[in-house]
Task: inverse folding
């Protein structure tokens, strides 16, 4: 039997980083929705070809196509594999669809791990990005500060905040996350399949906590 562990967490909570790190140390597969989509398109799978026709038309890939892709991914995984889903399900309908899709792909949903970070810490993480408008170098006021505050290490230009990293944009992204993903968290919580992790620490600390939660699941 193949097993799926769903990773949940707000933008800036570090779920992709944690999923990748723990996948590397345990031999699990990290399946981010973006990578799954790119892989299916580049390999020209039936779902990938369908997805490509939507993407070429500038349209969103519909859930039905995404669902086929999930089944393809599961079928393609070796027996006994553990897959970390990162970015799917992202709403309640997808969460409800996942169990039957898993069954179709010879898998079961072992549970979900939610990375909790307080909202002000998320805002600090996401809002701390600085970019050099001249050479493109990236910084972060907390985790990767420039040598001289507000100045690019490479070319000395004044650093800027990209539109994506402005407080109002970040607040909007967090609101979208809340309204779409909070019901997914509730869904797994009700099923008794949710593990919450305090993800306020360093990447290494978070990976360690995820690993512990995982051992109780798979
Ligand atoms: Zn620069």
Result:
């Amino acid at each position: 039997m193949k097993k799926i562990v769903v990773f949940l967490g707000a933008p800036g909570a570090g779920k992709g980083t944690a999923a990748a790190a723990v996948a590397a140390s345990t031999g699990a597969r990290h399946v981010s929705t973006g990578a799954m989509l790119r892989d299916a398109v580049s390999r020209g799978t039936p779902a990938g070809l369908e997805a490509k026709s939507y993407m070429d038309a500038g349209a969103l890939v519909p859930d039905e196509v995404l669902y086929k892709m999930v089944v393809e991914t599961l079928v393609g995984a070796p027996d006994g594999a553990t897959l970390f889903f990162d970015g799917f399900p992202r709403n309640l309908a997808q969460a409800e669809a996942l169990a039957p899709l898993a069954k179709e792909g010879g898998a079961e949903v072992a549970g979900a791990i939610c990375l909790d970070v307080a909202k002000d810490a998320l805002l600090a993480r996401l809002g701390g990005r600085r970019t050099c408008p001249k050479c493109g170098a990236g910084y972060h006021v907390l985790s990767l500060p420039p040598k001289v505050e507000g100045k690019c290490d490479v070319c000395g230009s004044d650093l800027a905040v990209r539109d994506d990293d402005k407080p109002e944009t970040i607040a909007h992204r967090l609101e979208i996350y809340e309204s779409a993903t909070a019901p997914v968290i509730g869904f797994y919580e009700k099923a008794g399949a949710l593990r919450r992790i305090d993800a306020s620490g360093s990447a290494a600390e978070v990976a360690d906590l995820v690993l512990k939660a995982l051992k109780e699941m798979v």
